[in-house]
Amino acid sequence: MGTIEFCGDYCLKASSSSSPSVPVTISTSRTDTVNGSHQFKVSGYSLSKGVGIGKYIASETFVVGGYSWAIYFYPDGKSIEDNAAYVSLFIALASEGTDVRALFALTLLDQSGKERHKVHSHFGRVLDSGPYTLKYRGSMWGYKRFFKRTLLEASDYLKNDCLSIHCRVGVVKSYTEADKVYSIALPPSNIGKHFGKLLESGKGSDVNFEVDGEIYAAHKLVLAARSPVFKAQLFGPMKDQNSQCIKVEDIMAPVFKALLHFIYWDALPCMQELVGLNSRWASTLMAQHLLAAADRYALERLKLLCESELCDSVAINTVATTLALAEQHHCYQLKGVCLKFIAVPENLRAVMQTDGFEHLKESCPSVLTELLQHVAMVGDHSVKAFAYTSGSCLDGSDMDGRRVKRRIY
């Protein structure tokens, strides 16, 4: 027997235990921290003494959780009653905010290498009263008596008259999540495909580039939108007078073609197809030239893609040339990978016999000093190996004085 329920205005319906169940929706409130950190170096500590009680040295502001923060270091302390016996250290809210809740950690770094850091932290422990609340801009959290000055000046925290302070901030954020009532499959972005087809068709092109006798048609607005260098060249006050056909020097035709491919497709082309050779060496050579072109036209994403490709393809016969390229175009991760590879004893001798090493010595002699440092870090065996070979083989000869060449061009 069912029951009778009122439903809506004067509407009766029968219900029974067999009625379909009512859908249940779920929402969840989540509270978490948005974390960030900043390292602040106080150089010339002894000169900062005497600035006055309550006077501070401030770090640059840094942003965490949508708010700006700054580290305040008081060389003579913050409180008059301490009579400059302590240094004070605080983290301050440097932007507008009301009741900003956050966790903090202030660390004075041990510079002896023993990692006996002085740490005051909210993180990793239960707080009876919850996160600290900063009420307004200029509110601070920290310690008036962070460290006694006499002890600080005799400690390993002070080295070469410099202190190193690390600050961590975790801004507390709360938000509510609810189950989605829809499910729409979103296709991947295809804007690159559309622009790529525009390049292939040549429709609407309004500028030509002559590269090694080859002509490439393109669109000024697309080039200017992607590259600040092209923007200046095509629309700036010093734009080329003959902007209908621009001759490009010092770039090979396949490299310029790859550059245009990236500008329109936002992706690397197949290197082997461009050079017509199915070899890893050809792809590496192409990536080297394309990295230089990317730097020339300020295409940072392309530069990073080439840097990543070259990091994955480090080899004996190309690594010295790649290292020179990394140094000239400020690719620091690529430079580190190359130095580490060459410093391995079994690689070092072979690399020194390549033409690329000769080019490296001539174009970037300062890198050889860094290479020696990496060799030293490998270990005593590596140091001896380098000392043995450097005396007789830095000119690219083998141990019998015979010249060994490995062409990579």
UniProtKB/TrEMBL annotation:
Residues 205-264 form the BTB domain. It holds the Pfam family BTB. It is a peripheral membrane protein. Its main location: membrane. One of its GO terms (biological process) is protein ubiquitination. One of its GO terms (cellular component) is endomembrane system. SUPFAM superfamilies: POZ domain, TRAF domain-like. InterPro entries: BACK_BPM_SPOP, BPM1-6, BPM_C, BTB/POZ_dom, MATH/TRAF_dom, SKP1/BTB/POZ_sf, TRAF-like. Pathway: Protein modification; protein ubiquitination. Residues 35-169 form the MATH domain. Gene3D superfamilies: 1.25.40.420, Apoptosis, Tumor Necrosis Factor Receptor Associated Protein 2, Chain A (2.60.210.10), Potassium Channel Kv1.1, Chain A (3.30.710.10). It is found in: Endomembrane system. Belongs to the Tdpoz family. May act as a substrate-specific adapter of an E3 ubiquitin-protein ligase complex (CUL3-RBX1-BTB) which mediates the ubiquitination and subsequent proteasomal degradation of target proteins. This is BTB/POZ and MATH domain-containing protein. The lineage of its organism: Eukaryota, Viridiplantae, Streptophyta, Embryophyta, Tracheophyta.
